[in-house]
Design brief:
CATH topology of the largest domain: Quinone Oxidoreductase, Chain A, domain 1
Number of strands: 17
CATH superfamily of the largest domain: Medium-chain alcohol dehydrogenases, catalytic domain
Strand content: 15-25%
Oligomer: single chain
Helix content: 25-40%
CATH class of the largest domain: Alpha Beta
Low-confidence stretches: 261-276
Number of domains: 2
Shape: globular
Number of helices: 11
Order of helices and strands: EEEHEEEEEEHHEHEHEHEHHEHEHEHE
Length: about 375
């Protein structure tokens, strides 16, 4: 089969790999019909994630058709059209029993914190991802779901991570009626977090970014106010001005490890790998939220040290909430929102590239060229 493979930082290509096979009775093999490049894939692409090995296939957002199932699979059959959450989880451990699917205790021997994730290095289990023609799906009776007939492929695809993560970020903010919510980052997760904040009672939603085309999307798709941090000497001071000098009730960090805005922090983290990620956005969140407020962290950070203002968070009495999204938990409510016409997730898609041209897709997304917000990958074209 044809599959994207990692060759080193900023170096990927499409290679021939063996078609995956059933390795356990509860596996399924899925023929990928549509995948996507996620903002967190860029952390791998840029060499930010530990233990990203040569030959690894990225891609944790994908949908497809079941080609084969193991002998114990009961909920899926050959030919089913399925959406697959980015979490790999067993469904029966202590954490899964409490809905913490992203923290499954049985799928990742390489870490005690995160569970398994498709295509996200050996730090998250070493599972190959869906930027390929076929993918092995473990615990096939637990993770994948048959796509409802009234849900379009591209909308289902975005529910496998970006939409579910953005919605979860708003949930973690514990938004109360009338709250002011600030979302840092106008990428796909930030856009979905901003849009979802309205569903939870926000009275104001402000999105912060430095790329004007993304801020325009935040205004048109998420109906948010916007601030371009490049136009202000101190974005935290501006946020205070915008909120009666108190700070926002909730701040959602939808940026993560490679945030711009402070040259020293960006260089020490993104370039020299001295931190698990640039703490710029997270520190803006801590400084920009009101005392007693809530910070929700959706941006991805690596497992090593980052220079976070934890003392300020303590002294302001903040609630910090974060996790990898337990994707499947969000689907029932998101189906309701889509069916009710509250939004169309695929409205954020800007580019579609054949699998054979995926290197160009990564370059466009990484360099933010051609108004790129979300890139889909189409195998077999």
């Amino acid at each position: 089969m044809r599959a994207m493979t990692y060759r080193g930082p900023y170096k990927i290509r499409v290679d021939e790999k063996d078609v995956p096979t059933i390795q356990h009775p509860n596996d399924a093999i899925v023929r990928v019909t549509l995948a996507a490049i996620c903002g967190s894939d860029l952390h791998l692409y840029h060499g930010m994630m530990p233990d990203t090995r040569i030959g690894h296939t990225f891609g944790h957002e994908f949908i497809g058709v079941v080609e084969e199932v193991g002998s114990s699979v009961e909920n899926l059959a050959k030919g089913d059209r399925v959406m697959v959450p980015f979490n790999i989880y067993c469904g029966s451990c202590w954490f899964c029993a409490r809905g913490l699917y992203s923290n499954c205790h049985n799928v990742n021997a390489n870490a005690t914190a995160v569970g398994g994730i498709y295509g996200y290095s050996h730090t998250t289990g070493g599972y190959d991802g869906g930027q390929a023609e076929y993918v092995r799906v473990p615990f096939a009776d637990v993770g994948p779901s048959i796509i409802p007939d009234d849900i379009r492929d591209e909308d289902a695809l975005l529910m496998t991570d970006a939409l579910s993560t953005g919605y979860f970020g708003a949930q973690l903010g514990e938004i109360a009626q009338g709250d002011t919510v600030v979302v840092l980052g106008a990428g796909p997760v930030g856009l979905f977090a901003a849009r979802s904040s309205w569903f939870m009672g926000a009275a104001r939603v402000i999105v912060v970014d430095h790329l004007e085309y993304r801020l325009e999307k935040a205004r048109s798709f998420a109906h948010a106010e916007t601030l371009n941090f490049a136009e202000h000497d101190d974005i935290v001071v501006e946020l205070k001005k915008q909120t009666d000098y108190l700070g926002a009730d909730v701040v959602i960090d939808a940026v993560g490890a490679e945030a711009d805005g402070n040259l020293i922090q960006h260089v020490t983290s993104a370039k020299f790998k001295l931190q698990g990620g640039s703490p710029i956005a997270l520190n803006w969140a801590i400084d920009g939220v009101r005392k007693g407020g809530t910070v929700s962290v959706m941006g991805a950070y690596g497992p090593i040290f980052s220079a976070v203002k934890f003392g300020d968070a303590l002294n302001k009495g903040l609630t910090l909430r974060m996790n990898q999204a337990p994707v499947k938990r969000q689907w029932p409510r998101l189906f309701e929102h889509i069916r009710a016409g509250h939004f169309t997730p695929s409205d954020i898609v800007t580019h579609r590239v054949p699998l054979e041209h995926i290197a160009e897709g990564y370059h466009l997304f990484s360099a933010k060229l051609d108004g790129n917000i979300k890139t889909l990958v189409v195998p077999g074209t």
